[in-house]
TrEMBL record:
Gene3D superfamilies: 3.90.320.10
Name of protein: PD-(D/E)XK endonuclease-like domain-containing protein
Keyword Nucleotide-binding: yes
Phylogenetic lineage: Bacteria, Bacillati, Mycoplasmatota, Mollicutes, Entomoplasmatales
Gene Ontology molecular functions: helicase activity
Amino acid sequence: MEKIENILRQEIFIDEESHKYYLKGVEINRPSVSTIMQYLPQYVFDDSFAETQEGKEILVNAITRGLHLHKIAEVWLKDRQERTCCNLYGHLEMKRWLLKILQKITNDYNEEDGWEIISELSMVGERYVGTLDILLINNKRKQYLIGDIKTTRHPDLQKETLQLTLYKHLLEERFKQININDMKLNNYFVINCNKINKEVYFMSENIQKIAEKHTLEIFEILNLRNKNL
Ligand SMILES: [Zn+2]
């Protein structure tokens, strides 16, 4: 059987430098998941703290940490290669923990049981685009889990779940296009890797329900905007 990963990736390309999405070679200009999340006021990213020098440094460090750890996960999931990290404070320790968790995931969701682990999957939907961090998918069991890597002290699980729910809807669109049927979401998870908070979170039914409600609100706004174009 052909790997689902190959089918999912067909005809979609993202340029890592410019973050532009291409479908069959044509550039797509649709908003991203992180953009449409902010259609709801409670999820607008407040970067006003970065107006001070100290705040700016905190923001730059946070972005660097996020980029480094995402790259480490991506490279490891793709080729089981351990990427070296910089000498920035705490990165080595965070990297070790992250790789330990990824190793555990590949043991728990293993190939013999039909699992595929896909990292950095870009998707182009009718209305928006997005790239998820980790997809665990099993075509025999008809199950999948969507995971995200975060590097914050206190992850906002409701916000995380909204983001992951928006990926789920993109993925469902994609499943339809490529005739993969009856896939069921098992759960969402967040691997949070920070100096003072390292934890893997799975989402409660209640958090998921609220996220679905917020997703529908975002879709209404998207539809209104598209109508007014
Ligand atoms: Zn680093």
